[in-house]
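Changelog-adjacent note: as of this version, every example in the card shows the full chain rather than a window. The one below runs 364 residues end to end.
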Amino acid sequence: MPQADFTDEIQRALKERIFVLDGAMGTTIRTYGLGESEARGARFADNEKDLLNNGDILSITRPEVIGDIHKRFYEAGSDICETNTFSATCIAQSEFFVEDPREKGGRKDPEFFQKILENSFLNDLAWEMNVESSRLCRKWADDIGTDTGRKRYVAGAIGPLTVSLTNSPDANDSGFRVVTFDQVLAAYKHQVRGLIEGGCDILMVETIFDSLNAKAAVVAIHEVFADDGCHLPVIISAAVGLGGETMISAQKVEALWNAFAHAKPLAIGLNCSLGPDLMRPHLEELSACAATCVSCYPNAGLPNPLAPTGFDLEPQHMHDYMAEFAKAGLLNLAGGCCGNTPEHITAIAKAVANFAPREVPVIQ
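Full-length structure tokens:
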């Protein structure tokens, strides 16, 4: 059943303290040492494509692992954990279950993706992923919240997809797009309804590489709210490059805020892409212009395949950086993306605990 609207409750709490987000689902999954057979389970044992890198499938085939990860992040101090649904749309799941036409000289185009949108197996799978992932996270939010006496929240993770609405993949046809806005919109609306059905408190459009894809997600959210008579707070978070631009649509941080301010998000922020040191100047820019709360959950440094988590920064490093951000008044919500384990989140929670949240400016 749909959750109540906790917007006012969360807004009040965000004026009192910095909220702690969770860490990296993918990084933490890898610490369980699962193989291809464990990821597939009996249900998908005969699938033609590998599923080990399809982390969202584990909410169905290994729910005890995903549940344990949520439990550990909440116990580490997370106020909000994200559902395991980063790629839980029919469009993204087609990468794992449908033959790629490019392997036989064809191409992906709107005709191909229309068949994906009409594929009952993929639609049913995406629905199940979103509902079950939300229920898994909901269980541990409620259990840990009850045990500790501090309410915990569930954020439905809505990822960026594997296709771009902004750029053409064909150097000879700049107007070509593999998918249409309406197709992306339909996939996101299906996901949003599944997340709400499973019991999310918040919807989080995250790791934005392509602002137009994110626009479709935000439109989907508001159309579902209007059609279904519900409302949840929304968080919007972008991944930016070294120059502070979204990496496909090349939209700078201030432009990103201007593009999404109309949606009145609970928070807007930055995640993934960079370590905290490289993210700081862009966080400062966003903090100065955003007339809402600001979130930040960076990678644990830049990728390093030789490091145990694939990233260099250890919990103490993340503690020190996030404490500095909090002291500077840049944060309303803090967490970690790739490379951040529950131990990192414990350190981040301690880092921000004694600092006041960023004051949200009133921008005329």
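Structural remarks: The radius of gyration is 19 Å.
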